[in-house]
Write a structure and sequence with these properties.
- This protein has 295 residues and is an alpha/beta fold.
- The chain is 40% helix and 16% strand.
- It folds into 2 domains: 86 residues, Rossmann fold, CATH 3.40.50; 132 residues, Rossmann fold, CATH 3.40.50.
- The strands form 3 sheets. Strands 1-11-8-7-5-6 form a 6-stranded parallel beta sheet. Strands 3-2-4 form a 3-stranded parallel beta sheet, sandwiched between helices. Strands 9-10 form a two-stranded antiparallel ribbon.
- It is globular.
- The two termini are 33 Å apart.
- The chain binds NADPH dihydro-nicotinamide-adenine-dinucleotide phosphate.
- NADPH dihydro-nicotinamide-adenine-dinucleotide phosphate (NDP) binds next to loops.
């Protein structure tokens, strides 16, 4: 029977642990970390994410700030808001909710964030530090994947890992993190030849593609551990006309009979992301303020 790696439970335990750390920081230093989230426009999915981030930040005992700007905001005005947050000593983490409207250069905005407050880990300085093995704030989703893997395996050294996807927010940082753990890492993408064969060599297979149930059992080595990062909304006629459901990049029902362990969608990697964001905020605060904490 495959082990189901339950991201909801793991994230809840992580949040409880972080709450304990924040309460120690309050006692020791008389202050707690603060996270500022900037939302541009009224994309309903982004509004839900931002609301959840705010709720979980406060539940963890930290300070939460929200800056909502109209979808018509000019890039310079958005950059001014980020500068204010960079200059505010009470703000330890800054997150700009993506996607931004088309008239705004997202990379320019992300690179305007103080790298020491870049809790999403998307700043080029943090990407460079991660790639060169330095101390970096690391993108939340791949770090969540690593925490799950470290919880499952006694040792990652020497494992053959295949990461499908080479985006800057998931695939590349995922590969860099696993290289740091001395795994043998292959990154596959849409131009890879013989993807099925490449994947069959993986002890650990990580799918971050965005293609519903593309990874069937034929891609998976018997006894592999599979992390499914994909979140895809597809029609669910079995639930009734017009109904939708979420599925991952992996065909879960057939894959689960082949694997040692696997994350479900929903309830796998997804819930880890906000918990890791809170962890990154604490890390950023401790780095900036020279606080000692046990992360
Ligand atoms: P991107 O679209 O930026 O990247 C997708 C990657 O998959 C690309 O590198 C692309 O290759 C590769 N790819 C596409 N088609 C194929 C194919 N047929 N075979 C092999 N590789 C392919 O997506 P993201 O990395 O941002 O996200 C990936 C998935 O993860 C999405 O479903 C997203 O919703 C989900 N996600 C979930 C998060 C969470 O759980 N919290 C957070 C972030 C993302 P190429 O580079 O050649 O185009």
């Amino acid at each position: 029977m495959a082990k189901i790696l339950d991201g909801k439970v793991f994230a809840k335990n992580l949040r409880d642990e972080l709450k304990g750390i924040v309460s120690i920081l309050r006692e020791e230093y008389g202050n707690v970390p603060g996270l500022a989230v900037v939302l541009v426009g009224d994309n309903p999915a982004s509004e839900v994410y931002v609301r959840n981030k705010g709720i979980q930040t406060k539940e963890c005992g930290m300070r939460s700030y929200e800056h909502k700007l109209a979808s018509t905001v000019q890039q310079d005005d958005l950059l001014k808001v980020i500068k204010q947050l960079n200059d505010d000593p009470e703000v330890d983490g800054i997150l700009v909710q993506l996607p931004l409207p088309n008239h705004i250069d997202s990379q320019k905005v992300l690179d305007s964030i103080d790298p020491e407050k870049d809790v999403d880990g998307f700043h080029i300085i943090n990407a460079g530090r991660l790639a060169t093995g330095g101390d970096a704030l690391v993108p939340c989703t791949p770090l969540g994947c690593l925490l799950l893997l470290k919880d499952h395996f006694d040792e990652l050294t020497g494992k053959n890992v295949v990461v499908i996807g080479r985006s800057n927010i998931v695939g590349k940082p995922m590969a860099a993190l696993l290289l740091r753990e001395s795994c043998t890492v292959t990154i596959a993408h849409s131009k890879s030849n013989n993807l099925e064969e490449i994947c069959q060599r993986a002890d650990i297979l990580i799918a971050a593609v965005g293609k519903p149930e593309m990874i069937t059992k034929d891609f998976i080595k018997k006894g592999a551990v599979v992390l499914d990062v994909g979140i895809n909304r597809i029609a669910a006629p079995e639930k009734g006309p017009g109904k939708m459901k979420l599925v991952g990049d992996v065909a879960f029902h057939e894959a689960k009979n082949r694997v040692e362990a696997i994350t479900p969608v929903p309830g796998g990697i997804g819930p880890m992301t906000i918990a890791v964001l809170l962890r990154n905020t604490i890390q950023a605060a401790c780095n900036r303020r020279a606080w000692k904490c046990d992360l």
